[in-house]
Write a structure and sequence with these properties.
Elements: H1 3-29, H2 45-51, H3 58-71, H4 78-99, H5 117-129, E1 135-139, H6 145-156, E2 161-165, H7 167-174, E3 185-189, H8 196-208, H9 217-227, E4 230-234, H10 240-251, E5 256-258, E6 271-273, H11 280-288, E7 317-322, E8 328-334, E9 345-348, E10 359-361, E11 363-370, H12 379-391, E12 396-399, E13 406-410, H13 411-415, H14 420-434, E14 441-447, H15 450-473, E15 482-486, E16 498-500, H16 513-522, E17 530-532, E18 536-538, E19 543-544, H17 545-554, E20 580-585, E21 590-595, H18 608-612, E22 624-627, E23 647-649, H19 652-670, H20 688-698
Parallel strand pairs: 1-2, 1-4, 2-3, 4-5, 5-6, 7-10, 8-11, 9-14, 21-23
Antiparallel strand pairs: 7-13, 11-14, 12-13, 15-16, 15-17, 18-19, 20-21, 20-22
The protein binds iron/sulfur cluster (SF4) and nickel (II) ion (2 copies).
One nickel (II) ion is lined by residues 124, 489, 508, 575-577.
């Protein structure tokens, strides 16, 4: 049989199954029955992306199947095979969607099935920074459990996001491997149709970040080919259905690497036979042109960004360090080059061997740095990265910062020989690696002696933090001479530009003005460029001629003008990876804000994913604005429309997160005490009527303000 025939056969088989499944569902539930995946604004995302049509019920699903049929032409040409591959993928999506009918939860841990829009938005930043350099789709059963696990781990160690479909899900479970989005290994499902859940991620990325018009299949496929670094590893034996799915993957630009040798035609760069499974990794990276940043650190456990989200439970930990209970600190300290011995690592006090199993201890590490271009302003920028660095160690967990950090070292890591001095190695290597433009020499001192920790914390660290906070508080948009652009997200959102100011951080929440300044210093031709602010046009909305010029140039002409402080007039664009989105609520003259973690309904009648789908892709959408969490308490938060007084609703968790700073700003700006208490949340209202009642009762200031539109 030719490859074409295999694709067509596989496609026909899946089509037949889909037709049966839809007919059976209609017989059972009736045509009007709703179909959708949970936590997405895109209904059946793949079908919507390819055709521009939203399927909402079984009747429409049946009609959609008719459209799919038109893709299934049968000439033995490449394009026919690709379209049949796409048709197979869409059928798979239909079959998977039927599993979710009636709010069913067809996937149980550790399987994921459908992935929420929020997961894709979260992937935005790590994908653009190259922190996640690629996405692997592993399909079928490896020849042995060991080979399967070794392959998965090889990708994990490179930070690649791994999705699993079919027998490999059981194989990693059998090996006892920890899986989950937090360690970047996501078992999707055991049926081959579950592969659609990763395709769905790629296609939604095009809609969310790329501003691709749903239905523009050509642009869609160009987007996935150029911007989504995914590839497929399919284990032999391949049946025709898998071959048909593979044709779909190739149509999207994702190469397929397989160890099948029988009955398979090789297609250069697209369908690659690699008989040796241990070489799948290298072959795949080469085929997709993925480069891995290597940080060689001499420690006895793995070090990779995939371990960043790893959690160490109490029962699995050897020891713990806890800044909320005992004196701890983490600090970057700039000193003169003569005071440093490069790469010297010292532990002052007991090592882990001398600590009792399961005990809580003090730790304070001081990373001394020196360099001609080093500035004290970069200290907190470097320090904040410690969280990522330490978390990347397999078997070590870090939360918090400054003098409130908490670290756990697992029994496994300890047994493998991991000791505190290795934290020093990690900090040294990572700082030197990432900040080489400003750090010439670096030395690490780790204190565990409790008296020394107390001294470092109270006499060195806290005074430094206080000084820095004063500096930050005095850092306003007016007090600086320049702002910075960030165009990191252009990898996925080609026309998006963030303008980062002291009082308005990037919408991802990860880039403050100081971060942008440091990034610019580290790489003057990199993503953060200086933007002057010498020619104001309108102070009220924060519009400048120089900012407009910069934005126009950096967006390649896509954006003409942008304001810094307005949500209605020339608002800043969004890429898609914003932490929060705010949208106007007409009944109260206010705005509602939802954060990415919030899964419920808002008084705007939309969930976070639905609200989020209103903006993105680098386009201006008055009335909706993506932003970082910390922007909420800023004096510049939609200042043009009256500022934070307009905030009428936020999820409870977000409210608690911003309360202190928001209350302080409200007090300073309007003399209101405990402003956060006047703001509704999901425990008060998720509809506008109840919300307005609540706001009236509280005397919320927005009610008396001018309507925004
Ligand atoms: Fe993307 Fe803006 Fe964050 Fe830069 S600041 S990473 S462009 S969201
Ligand atoms: Ni103390
Ligand atoms: Ni982004």
């Amino acid at each position: 049989m030719t490859l074409f025939e295999r694709v067509f056969n596989g496609n026909d088989a899946v089509y037949g199954l889909t037709e049966q499944a839809i007919d059976a569902a209609i017989a059972q539930h009736g045509e009007e029955k709703a179909v959708s995946f949970p936590n997405t604004a895109y209904c059946l995302p793949c079908y919507y992306a390819v055709t521009g049509v939203k399927v909402t019920n079984l009747k429409e699903l049946k009609e959609a199947l008719g459209v799919v049929k038109t893709l299934m032409t049968r000439e033995p040409r490449l394009n026919d095979a690709f379209m049949s591959g796409v048709a197979t993928a869409l059928c798979a999506e239909f079959i998977e969607a039927l599993k979710y009918i009636d709010g069913a939860t067809p996937y149980e841990e550790p399987l994921y099935g459908h992935l929420a829009d929020a997961v894709i938005r979260e992937l935005g930043v790590p994908l653009v920074t190259g922190d996640i350099p690629g996405v692997a789709v592993i399909l079928g059963s490896a020849p042995t459990v060991e080979e399967g696990v070794a392959l998965v781990k090889s990708y994990q160690a490179q930070g690649i996001l791994v999705t699993l479909v079919g027998g490999i899900c059981d194989q990693v479970a059998e090996a006892g491997m920890a899986t989950g989005a937090n360690v970047r290994v996501i078992p999707l499902g055991k049926d081959v149709t579950a592969v659609i859940h990763v395709v769905s991620v790629a296609l939604r990325a095009a809609l969310i970040f790329g501003n691709v018009t749903p239905g523009d299949a050509k642009t869609l496929m160009e987007y996935t080919m150029q911007r989504v670094p995914a590839f497929v590893n399919a284990f032999a034996p391949l049946d025709d259905v898998i071959v048909a799915c593979g044709a779909g993957a190739i149509a999207l630009g994702f190469p397929v690497i397989t160890n099948e040798t029988e009955n398979i035609a090789r297609v250069p760069k697209s369908l690659i036979v690699q008989e040796d499974v241990s070489k799948f990794n290298a072959t795949s990276l080469e085929a997709r042109d993925i480069k891995i940043k290597i940080t060689n650190i001499d420690i006895p456990v793995a070090f990779a960004s995939a371990f960043e989200g790893e959690i160490i439970r109490r029962g699995d930990m050897q020891v713990e360090f806890d800044g909320s209970r005992v004196d701890c600190a983490e600090l970057v300290h700039t000193v003169d080059a003569s005071e440093i011995e490069d790469h010297k690592i010292t532990v002052v006090g007991p090592e882990v061997d001398d600590m009792e199993l399961g005990s809580k201890n003090s730790i304070a590490y001081v990373v001394k740095v020196a360099g001609k271009n080093m500035q004290p302003d970069f200290e907190p920028v470097i320090e904040r990265k410690f969280h990522n660095y330490i978390n990347c160690i397999e078997g070590v967990y870090h939360t918090g910062q400054r003098d409130m950090q908490r670290i756990r070292i697992s029994k496994n890591a300890f047994a493998a020989g991991f000791r505190l001095k290795h934290i020093g190695e990690v900090l040294y290597a990572s700082v030197k690696n990432e900040f080489e433009a400003v750090v010439d020499k670096c030395e690490v001192i780790i204190y565990t002696d409790p008296a020394e920790c107390t001294r470092i914390r109270h006499e060195v660290a806290i005074p430094t933090f206080n000084k820095r906070d004063d500096r930050l508080n005095n850092l306003t948009d007016e007090s600086v001479d320049v702002y910075y652009s960030c165009i990191l997200c252009q990898a996925f959102s080609p026309s998006h530009v963030c303008v980062v100011t002291p009082e308005r951080l990037g919408l991802c929440g990860a880039v403050s003005w100081l971060d942008a300044k440091a990034t610019n210093e580290l790489d003057p031709n990199g993503p953060c460029q200086v933007i002057t602010k010498e020619r104001p046009i309108d102070e009220r909305i924060g519009e400048y001629e120089d900012v407009n010029e910069a934005v126009k140039r950096l967006s390649q002409g896509a954006l003409e003008d942008v304001s810094l402080y307005s949500i209605m007039e020339k608002p800043m664009t969004s890429c898609g990876c914003f932490e929060c989105i705010c949208g106007i609520e007409p009944f109260s003259n206010g705005v509602c804000i939802a954060n990415r973690e919030y899964a419920g309904m808002t008084p705007l009648g939309m969930t976070f994913p639905e609200l989020a789908s209103m903006t993105g892709g680098g386009v201006q959408t008055p009335g909706f604005m993506g932003h970082g969490k910390h922007f909420i308490a800023s004096k510049k938060f939609m200042k043009a429309e009256g500022g934070i007084e307009r905030i009428v609703w936020m999820p409870k968790e977000l409210k608690e997160f911003v309360a202190d700073r928001l209350n302080q700003t409200a007090k300073e700006l309007y003399g209101i005490d405990n402003f956060t208490d006047m703001i509704g949340d999901e425990t008060v209202a998720t509809d506008p009527e109840t919300l307005v009642e609540f706001l009236t009762e509280k005397g919320h200031p927005a009610l008396g303000m001018d309507p925004m539109m």
